[in-house]
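Anyone able to model this chain together with ANZ?
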Amino acid sequence: MDTEYKPEEIETRIQQFWDKNKVFKAVEDTEREKYYCLSMFPYPSGRLHMGHVRNYTIGDVISRYQRMQGKNVLQPMGWDAFGLPAENAAIKNNVAPAKWTRENIDYMRNQLKRLGLGYDWERELATCDPDYYRWEQWLFTRLYKKGLVYKKTAAVNWCPNDLTVLANEQVIDGKCWRCDHEVEKKDIPQWFMKITDYADELLDDLDRLEGWPEQVRTMQRNWIGRSEGVEISFALEGRDENLKVFTTRPDTLMGVTYVAVAAEHPLALEAGEKYDNVAAFINECAKTDTAEASLETMEKKGIDTGLKAIHPVTGDRVPVFIANFVLMGYGEGAVMAVPAHDQRDYEFASKYGLPIRQVIEPLGNEECDLNSAAFTARGRLVHSGEFDGLSSEQAFEKIAAWLEARGQGKKRTTYRLRDWGVSRQRYWGAPIPIINCNKCGEVAVPEEDLPVVLPEDVEFDGVGSPIKKMPSFYETTCPSCGGKAERETDTFDTFMESSWYYARYASADNDSSMLDERADYWLPVDQYVGGIEHAILHLLYARFFNKLMRDVGLTKTDEPFKNLLTQGMVLKDGAKMSKSKGNTVDPQGLIEEYGADTARLFMMFAAPPEQSLEWSDAGVEGASRFLKRLWRLVNEHVAGGAIAKLDLKALNDAQKKLRRQTHETIAKVSDDIGRRYTFNTAIAAVMELINALAKFSDSSAQGRAVKQESLQAVVLLLSPIVPHITHELWQRLGNDSLLLQQPWPEVDESALQKDSMQIIVQVNGKLRSRIEVSASASKDDIEQAAQADENVKRFTDGKQLVKVIVVPNKLVNIVVR
Ligand code: ANZ
Ligand code: ZN
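re: yes, here you go
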């Protein structure tokens, strides 16, 4: 037998064995408890990076551990295969996106296999396959019929030089990435999914996701941004219609000194037609990007429309401004401005000389200095007539009721969440299954005509999408009237494909429906592992899709992912490893030089999974040395010949001690891997045990038997992390069975018991001594031993004994007078 550790040879041999025997094939079995472990699928960029290696190792360790717990484990893998990089590569290397993508998949699949990741490859899917996206198209047409998708015009980035729509990533400092021409906004019809219909459920169900990091739940809550407020109608002087505003602070109503509308608001547009300077201001606003995040910091600008609004309580006339910090897409696109209590209104009022009227005073000692800033906290009402003295909370209700009674207001909930625009004017994506007919308008592609296949054999030059120039693709007949019609040439946002792949793995080979009863068995995913960068969009969309699929009867679960682990970044010299920084380490080289087990061990040992991991050559060396040491230890032990049966009654103290450490280690590693997910401390505990084993030179029959038990435990405990070397060592330890079929080792409680224990002895509550007593000592024995101790006697001699208190296993307190 080979006594030298040759990872390359061992690993490829074992991987072939796994492959051939399909050991990771998952089969539904209602008799067994299932465990679905999923790692976020990669974009097939060409090669794995360290972030992948970390992500997939974590998922694999959890899967293998759960398998050893007797669970029926599903761990699938696939490819998030549509998207912009394929188009960029196509332009750069003059290769069709489809070909480039599929070649990358083939290369990366081998890399994953070389890492020894236990996937059920029979369920592999690639989102660019028509067999996959046809179901997404199918669901979309379903949702269209249910009224959950709709078309409306929305702005895109447009390069007037290349005559092409640009993705946000292709706009660099407002310029086109290819030709450097100034990018414009252009309004075009696009498809939207009504995620806002699910806003409440998406928000409320976050409370039930106890297996998710609080941070991610908070990010989703903020993204959905539910606000309870009041919609208030302001009459307009000399006009019939009202101006509606949305406010979350009706308690500040008496402090309104003007109202403001968005630049796209109908009243603004109307004023723009009358006054040139207003039109110019509206134009200026259209150019500047009002990302919501910048509303706080941007310079507040506005212009008076000349209109006057009537305050609903006082009847005062207040001016109506157009302001750049009011968004058309939120609430009513109009606000009642309360400069004393809203910082944006305050800055605006200060700039344009509008009155600042305090109506809220602090309840406690918060700072309130209206000469320098708005007072934005809640408090007590002042200068508010009949509402004076109320708290903000009371006033919210009172003023809402007051307005409601007069037909001037209504409580209302708004959301920050917008409907999801899913149209992309790109080529490399799933075609949107809609046909536009001059007579019938938009018509969903009938089920029997799906999929709408994306032509893959195309010339790709990057100026517009090839299918927009391809009559053979877009010319078609209307399914409704049979007349000439054109296909939609936009494709789906690639977030569509990644929103339901987790479910499709359950029914990956079904060619007659999107999901089937196997999804009921496997869903929800028990453990999802991936990067924190997906905390909002991907996870929210996947949750949304799960609910959509549930509501068309495809799945029964409310949520897709029961537990979520967001792994930390892989850093080098303190910075994120990334191509643009040029500080990457290619996993391929690492695997070739050291083997997959070393790569996996390093990844799991260097940091707990949720924290960032600092790349370290020394750390890799250390991991490699540790495996060599384990290898040697087992081989030397095995060379000693046959192993006697363990006879627990015959063990001496040193043997018992090693046995105790073995079982303590099993207990700790079980907790670290199974519950805490601190794989690094689990590995550290095994390392300590190995140190003890290396020092244990007892070659007696029972000594070797104890060592055998311990080495078997080490191999089992490490097997989820370093599955190849342990597979080999398991056999070398004389086992005929397959390591993969072994259950997780159990703690022998009797081994944990110590022969003796240490007891603290106090005299009148002060620590005076520590004594060793037998583990089986009775209360009386302990009392006696404590009183007989020399250190204790010095404090008790000549005194009168009052009582002795014994706290089992811990301490004795002797009270004397
Ligand atoms: C008066 C007021 C007084 C407000 C006050 C705040 C503080 P959230 O919590 O994010 O929902 N608002 C309403 N519609 C807006 C729009 N289309 N564009 C920009 N701002 C808008 O924010 C709700 C608050 O944001 C509303 O409450 C409104 O200002 C403003 F002391 O109304 B408030
Ligand atoms: Zn038609």
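The chain is about 35% helix and 20% strand.
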